[in-house]
Amino acid sequence: MARIVILGAGESGTGAAVLAQKKGFDTFVSDMSLIKDKYKQMLDERGIQWEEGRHTEELILNADEVIKSPGIPNDAPMILKLKAQGTPIISEIEFAGRYTDAKMICITGSNGKTTTTSLIYHIFKKAGLNVGLAGNIGQSLAYQVAECDFDYYVIELSSFQLDNMYKFHANIAVLMNITPDHLDRYNYQMQNYVDAKFRIIQNQTDDDAFVFWNDDPIIQKELHKYGIHGRYFPFAEKKENGLAAFSEENKVCFTRPIAFNMEQEELALTGTHNLFNSMAAGISANIAGIRKECIREALKDFKGVEHRLEKVARVRGVDYINDSKATNVNSCWYALQSMRTKTILILGGKDKGNDYNEIAGLVKEKCTGLIFLGLHNEKLHAFFDGFGLPTADVQSMKDAVDAAYRMAQPGETVLLSPCCASFDLFKSYEDRGDQFKECVRNL
User: Fold this and answer.
1) Do residues 261 and 228 lie in contact, with contact meaning Cβ atoms separated by under 8 Å?
2) Selection from 308, 264, 271, 301 nearest residue 123 by Cα
3) What fold is seen in the domain 94-301?
4) Could you report the per-residue pLDDT of 353-377, keeping only the tens digit for each?
5) Which listed CATH number (3.40.50.720, 3.40.50.10490, 3.40.50.1910, 3.40.50.2300) goes with 3-90?
6) If both were cysteines, with which of 2, 271, 294, 394 could 64 make a disulfide (CB 3.0 to 4.6 Å apart)?
7) What are the tens digits of pLDDT across the range 23-51?
8) Which pTM was predicted?
9) If one looks up domain 310-441 in CATH, what number appears?
10) What angle in degrees, to the nearest 10, is found between the helix axes of 329-338 and 272-287?
């Protein structure tokens, strides 16, 4: 019996363990951190062996194959030992893809992928298709392959997941954009990160589709390098030949496979970045054969994604917006660009090699105050102090919201859009956003 070891017992790792055991593998799960009770219960119910708080070498190095959590760096000591002895290391998505013939709609990008993934799933569900939501959101793909029988999966993929995918095949691959992110995981080499993102199109055939933002300079520069086989479906803000979607005279125009239009003001999501998210989702649904009437209706009634430009409350004439999912500078750029009022910006956290020049112009134009939320704010001060804006240093969400409350004037907006990972002060970006919402509601 072949032995599979899963490193990391979160959503993806536990799902992989459930599928591995179901397929008859000798399965073992190891996590350097403590495992959540709900995942322990899932493993115990199936008699799957696990350990927490350590990696026991003799129980791991004897694996025939290892499934690695995307959160574990490729240079972690145990990963280096496995690589040195030639043990194959794959992702949970790669493993799950071996055991299903479902159509895969896969979405990646530095920004917009969660909203686009959720929107595509919403359209497919509204059309009555038998579809699962997986990847960075929803249940683990491996768990769904083990326990469900979907015809389609809509999957959000991070660069970390793509790193350990080799034979997995996306029927529809969506690449929203590429801007600097996670460079600390890629030896601060942008090309390594770009290559990871383009892995989404590996193994595509002439029958498959590649949907991408045509105006992204990095995508345009890199397109020719990767031997793409799928059909191109580019989208952009302004009309050009060959586009699958564009905007014109306040309409969103889809050109193929089936041509149709809708009024831009009818889109549930506002802002230029959400226009692109809606285009990518509409094209993907169009390729899948969903009726244009259904696509229109779904693009109108979508409710949005938690922690992404989420309106929390208005307190004494000030709007509070939770954009905790903005874990890189480009995400914050989109958020600031969509602001229609003067803004108090809360930013900071675990820096991933950020270059704040991208938002400098918008901060000068739109911000009346900055709140630095992090254990190490020196880089933020070095960059922003010369702007002449009032600033505050805080190390808890309550202090951040209280400082914003004191700074903001009626008619302004307080925007949590951190540019950074959350792990210095919070468990996750969700925890950061939840704390923000609770503090605002307690004002």
Assistant:
1) no
2) 301
3) UDP-N-acetylmuramoyl-L-alanine:D-glutamate ligase (3.40.1190)
4) 899 999 999 999 999 999 999 999 9
5) 3.40.50.720
6) 2
7) 999 999 999 999 999 999 999 999 999 99
8) 0.81
9) 3.90.190.20
10) 110
